[in-house]
Amino acid sequence: MSAKKIFNHIPKLIFNSPWFIILLFSIIGLIGILNHSMWRDELNPWLIIRDSESLPDLIGNIRYEGHPVLWYFSLALLRNIADTPIMMQLFHLGLAISSVTIFCLYSPFNYRQKFLFSFGYLPFYEYLLISRNYALGMFFIFAFCAAFPSRKKTYIILAILLGLMANSNAYALFISFTLVLTLIVEFCFDIEHRHQYFRQNKKYDLFISVAIIISCFILAINIITPPADSYLHGGLSNGWSVTLDIRHLLKSIGRLFSGYFLIIPTSKRWLDLIVCTLIALSAIALTLLKLSKKPIPLFFYTLGTLEILMFAYLKFAGSGLRHFGHFYLVFIAALWLESYYQESSFLSNKFLIPQQTLRFSNKWYSIIFMATLYMQFFGGIYGFTRDLVIPYSASRETSQYIRKSQLDQEFIVASRDANMAALSGYLNRKFYYPELQNMGSFTLFKTGRKEVDQAEILKQTSSLLNMQKNLNKILLILHQELKINRNDLKIVPIKNFERAWVDSERYYLYWVQRE
Do residues 36 and 138 lie in contact, with contact meaning Cβ atoms separated by under 8 Å? Predict the structure, then answer.
């Protein structure tokens, strides 16, 4: 090969390498996460770690969150390294990079598909910039898929990954449970695999693996089960939807459509629900036909999708793409696991599926799959770019102003408490919360906390000024503009911070003094 050909060939090798995707993702991801302004759902767990008084107190507080312990324990270790929430962001960036690295190096997809997925909505935006426990779930799902061949020699590695996955978040718990059942089905029905496993392992390997999974599942279920006095928001306290409700059913299937295509159908419009449901069911049908020659991945995809779909209908429909996206992760994981199996004609023969039907469905499946990847890709680019231009929350800008103006040592009354976690995290201090009638930082939705209106906020502020004679003025921070006044108070607006994507995390600062 001539020098000229070699010179021209080098760029192709670089840009067609999975390491190019990983490097590009890492560089852009670092820029994005350092620019990101954290909001309450990111910093509330950090505050729980920071301000819990003991380990039992920490465990008790976590139980009101509806999430397993792994993310919180990770934050506790990070805080021992450096007491700043930036550590959480860097850790989250590391999780996102690790997930993309595993995906690019070990998944069976081609280069274009790896590129589109890596810069898609979940890896490049939702599970990269917004520091939540969902990134842990994605990481362990991908790690499980990469380590799947190890089951021929030992189940312990997969058991550890499944246990960690179960303790990442509630949706990862569902997926972990589905993967456990998938392993059981394979172990029971694949005689060749079972004999190969026992030839290479002693029985204690299986016992240890089962013990790991059971203990981790017990821990996760115990922690996410809310205490009796919890009234956790997000639909988890609304009971079970056990009656047939067609609109609610279509809405739940619409969540699956959202997970694939990032468009949330309007639940009040029947046309939207019906069209999105038909597209979602078509995508599922094509995927089922695609996997019909691989019974074990087919089992996982069917059960995993149904499990999350049932949860959406019976208990919690989800409040954002961070939840709906787990349909998409199940889809990707099923296609990944498919690559480990030889084709089988068992199901196609049993159900008399014509070969022509399979060829036709595979053609349309490829179109739907690529359409999904492109929708996710454009959604990821849009979300990431928007976060660079418009702050997700006004919390960082507000806290920087408070520090610069030397207001961070003032007595601060802040409301609504649930919207103030980001400020408390950035300023590294507690506020007086009218909802608690006490000092606080994080918010737990439980008995003793009461929602208050602006009249009640000013009433408590006036009482604080009257009870503490050495307190001449109070810095009042609200997440909505103040609309009322009191005759016994002099209220002077200081500054508004309204540039934020989340409209409930815009902040309004006031001086409050006795009249």
Answer: no
Half-sphere exposure of 314 (CA within 13 A, CB side): 7
Q: How far apart are CA 342 and CA 346, in angstroms?
A: 12
CA angle 196, 200, 204 (to 5 degrees): 110
Say what angle helices 321-338 and 246-261 make with each other, to 10 degrees: 70
Tens digit of each residue's pLDDT (9 = 90 or more) over 413-437: 999 999 999 999 999 999 999 999 9
pLDDT, tens digit (0-9, with 9 covering 90-100), for 284-320: 999 998 998 899 999 999 999 999 999 988 888 777 8
For residue 403, is the peptide bond before it cis, meaning its omega torsion is within 30 degrees of 0? Answer: no
Burial (Cβ within 10 Å: 0-12, 13-18, ≥19) of residue 29: buried
Residues 6+ apart with CB under 8 A from 302: 288
Strands 412-415 and 489-497: unpaired
Query: Residue 33: which of 111, 125, 144 has the closest Cα?
Result: 125
> What are the φ and ψ backbone dihedral angles of 261, each rounded to 5 degrees?
-115, 0
Entry pTM: 0.92
CB 143 within 8 A of CB 404: no
Q: Contacts from 106-112 at CB under 8 Å and sequence distance 24+?
A: 106/142, 106/145, 106/146, 107/142, 107/145, 107/146, 107/336, 108/335, 108/336, 108/338, 108/339, 109/335, 109/336, 111/16, 111/18
